[in-house]
Amino acid sequence: MSKTVLIVEDDAPNRKLFRDVLQANGYVTEEAPDGKQAIDLARRRRYDLILMDIQLPGASGVETMRSLRAAAETRAVPVVALTGFALPSDRARFLREGFDNCLTKPVDLDEFLQVVARYVADCRAADAGEPQARAPGVS
């Protein structure tokens, strides 16, 4: 079964980079340039992971993640924040807000792929009825 990742990013070059890296590593991707479209897509399709930019036009990434967490059909989907905010306090704030993890842009591609693989594997384990180990961050 394909591993499907929703990329929520308003910057087209960043979207392309994430898409190309993920597709080159065997993932199926879909894209949304804003939170509204992300919510619409997530309600219609089951994703293994959502990568969410923090600064989006309209509703922010934080507001969009809250909407996803509030809906029964999207509540359990892991959401990883993608942000240009690099301070440790920013990362801690996004994790407190409810993101499963946080990656700082520009992303380290090795770390990016490790994080994606971890959450997709956790999602697959949950689908198979195995215990789900959700780590809050990557060291």
Describe the structure concisely.
The protein is α/β, with parallel strands linked by helices and 139 residues long.
Q: Roughly how much helix do the residues carry, as a percent range? A: 40-55%
Uncertain runs are 130-139
The strand count comes to: 5
- The SSE order reads EHEHEHEHEH
Task: Summarize model confidence as the mean pLDDT.
Answer: 89
Number of helices: 5
Task: Describe the secondary structure blueprint for this structure.
Elements: E1 4-8, H1 12-24, E2 28-32, H2 35-44, E3 49-53, H3 61-70, E4 79-83, H4 88-97, E5 101-104, H5 109-127
Parallel strand pairs: 1-2, 1-3, 3-4, 4-5
Helix pairs in contact: 2-3
Explain how this protein is built.
Strand 1, helix 1 (12-24) and strand 2 form a beta-alpha-beta unit. Strands 2-1-3-4-5 form a five-stranded parallel sheet, sandwiched between helices. The chain has 139 residues and is an alpha/beta fold. Helix content is 45%, strand content 17%.
Task: Name its key features.
139 residues, alpha/beta, 45% helix, globular, five-stranded parallel β-sheet, 5 helices, 5 strands
